[in-house]
Amino acid sequence: MSIADNAKRIIERVSQAAVRSGRTPEDVTLVAASKMNSAENVRAAFDAGIKVFGENRVQEMLEKMALGAYDGAQIHMIGALQKNKVRNIAGKVDLIQSVDSLALMQEISKRAAAQGAVQNVLLEVNIGREESKSGVYAEELDELAAAASGLEGVHVAGLMTIPPASAEKLMSRKYFDEMRKLFVDIETKKYDNVTMKILSMGMSDDFEEAIFAGATMVRVGSAIFGERDYSHPV
Ligand SMILES: *Cc1c(COP(=O)(O)O)cnc(C)c1O
Asked: What pLDDT shows up at residue 186?
């Protein structure tokens, strides 16, 4: 299957899952996770109808951006972000999905405000409490969300998570349901400068379960681009 065929199929499956969960196709945004894929591959997915891309590494994103890979599309940072890389992307990307500390949010605030921009961000939650994963624990989320109220140049638009890899769809569903609860919970707190519009969860193996659980954004990589070849970094 070509990238174009895969992309069209995934767009269709996302739409169908949205409708089956009582929403419209427009209610769920498909982000193509294009790490380790060339600008050419990104363009192939764009031409097939993908309108949002997510990258994990700042350097890789900037290189592909310079090649025009994302022209006409939105670009999101979805990977772990170091503070010293923030100045390269603040105000340049449509969404930073991976904010997992107050220090990082403050840095984004400072860099975006200096450009007169407001950077939309998501707060990343480590819902499975895994040592190896970034994201705040559920009980730390309130404090981080509340801290956004004092920051210019940044707006919290929702939550993101990468749950533990699991062969069991029921296990993923449990984590997705927990995320949905947190999402609703934070919204009811009505923190200044925080709106719970985006719930980003679900990847190639479980994006339909995530949508059934309330995801408004899914991030799909290998199901569109094929398995990543880690022996040949882009
Ligand atoms: C790579 C990646 C994805 C997509 O993973 P696949 O299993 O290839 O669909 C989603 N989110 C993040 C943060 C990623 O790094």
From this structure: 97
CA-nearest residue for atom 7, ligand 1, is 204
Ligand 1 contact, 64 CB (< 6 A)? no
| Residue-level pLDDT at 1 | 82
- Please tell me the distance between residue 189's alpha carbon and the centre of ligand 1 in angstroms: 30
pLDDT computed for residue 233 by the predictor: 55
Per the CB < 8 A criterion, the answer to whether 31 and 218 are in contact is yes
Q: Which atom of ligand 1 is nearest to the CA of 31?
A: 10
Calculate how far, in angstroms, residue 22's C-alpha sits from the geometric centre of ligand 1: 25
pLDDT by residue (tens digit) across 33-82? 999 999 999 999 999 999 999 999 999 999 999 999 999 999 999 999 99
> With a 6 A CB cut-off, is 33 part of the ligand 1 pocket?
yes
In whole angstroms, give the CA distance from residue 22 to residue 193.
28
Tell me the CA–centroid distance for residue 228 and ligand 1, in Å: 10
The token pair that represents 43 in the structure block: 């363009």
CA 61 to chain centre: 14
Residue 168 has pLDDT above 60, yes or no: yes
Least confident of 42-51, 132-141, 168-177, 201-210: 168-177
- Distance between Cα 192 and ligand 1 center (Å): 31
**DSSP letters for 72-97:** TSEEEE-S---GGGHHHHTTTSSEEE
**Residue 96 beta carbon below 6 angstroms from any ligand 1 atom:** no
Separation of CA 110 from chain center: 22
